[in-house]
Amino acid sequence: MTETLEHPITDREALPVELVDDAGHAIGTCPVSQAHQAPGQLHRAFSVLLFDDTGRVLLQQRAAVKTRFPSQWANTCCGHPAPGEPVAAAAAVRLAEEMGLATTLAEVGVYRYHAEDATTGRVEFEWDHVLVGLLSAGSPHPNPDEVADYAWIQPEALRDAMADDPDAYTPWLAGVLEVAERALTER
User: In which pathway does it act (predicted)?
Assistant: First the structure.
């Protein structure tokens, strides 16, 4: 008897991440869980921001079961490419897995950050490739194992909301938004 799963069960914490140096060059690998133990190890990641035709950005509220920054609002999706995997390819796969969406993505910059999650004790220390895309058709179909909710919001309103209630948002969201907007205005 052969079984197929629509969403294969994966222990994402056991997957390898690519460790990088201060210039973003690969220097090794370790499991996701190890990279996120205090004090954290600098590793390659990506953050996707999708915009619509009116300039709104698509956010997701991270599922409560996430090991880092659960239930906080974040960019459209994020993750880690496998060692040696092209970032845009990994981001496209993760966008489909988390939000049920597909669109062309373009890398627009890197945001490096370090953030400690006081709730879980985990650490984010990432060389974060920022990718943007336009969603002109279709709507999100989030995976409930990954995403609690989603919302479209104008960037100006998002900045105001983050200033009013910073604990509701992931610590990387403001920096990722800044990299994306700077790149989009320079086009």
Answer: Isoprenoid biosynthesis; dimethylallyl diphosphate biosynthesis; dimethylallyl diphosphate from isopentenyl diphosphate: step 1/1
Q: In terms of Cα–Cα distance, which of 48, 69, 53, 63 is closest to 176?
A: 48
Domains in the chain with CATH codes: 15-20+27-186 (3.90.79.10)
Q: Any known ligand binding at 124?
A: yes
Tens of pLDDT, residues 107-164? 999 999 999 998 888 999 999 999 999 998 889 999 999 999 999 999 999 999 999 9
Tell me if 6 is assigned to a ligand binding site: no
Residues belonging to the active site: 78, 126
Q: Is 25 annotated as a binding residue?
A: no
168 φψ region: left (φ > 0), alpha (ψ -120 to 50), beta (else): alpha
